[in-house]
Amino acid sequence: MAKGFTDEDDALLAELGVEIETKKVVARTPREERIIAGFEEIQRFVDQNGRVPGHGEDKDIFERLYATRLERLRELGEDRDLISDMDHQGLFAAKNPVKDADLEDLDDDALLAELGIAAEAPSISELKHVRSTSEKKAAEEVAGREKCEDFDTFKPLFEQIQKELDSGIRETRKFELKAEIEPGRFFIVGGQKAYVAEMGDIELTDHGRTDARLRVVFDNGTQSKMLMRSLQRALNADGDAGRRITEPNAGPLFSDETAEGDEASGTIYVLRSRSDHPLVAANRELVHKIGVTSNDVEKRIAGAQLQTTFLMAKVDVVATYELYNINRSKLETLLHRIFAPAQLDIEIPDRLGRPMKPREWFLVPLFAIEEAVERIKDGTISHYVYDPSIAELVQRE
Question: Which of 124, 171, 192, 322 is most buried as measured by Cβ atoms within 10 A of its Cβ?
Answer without folding.
Answer: 124
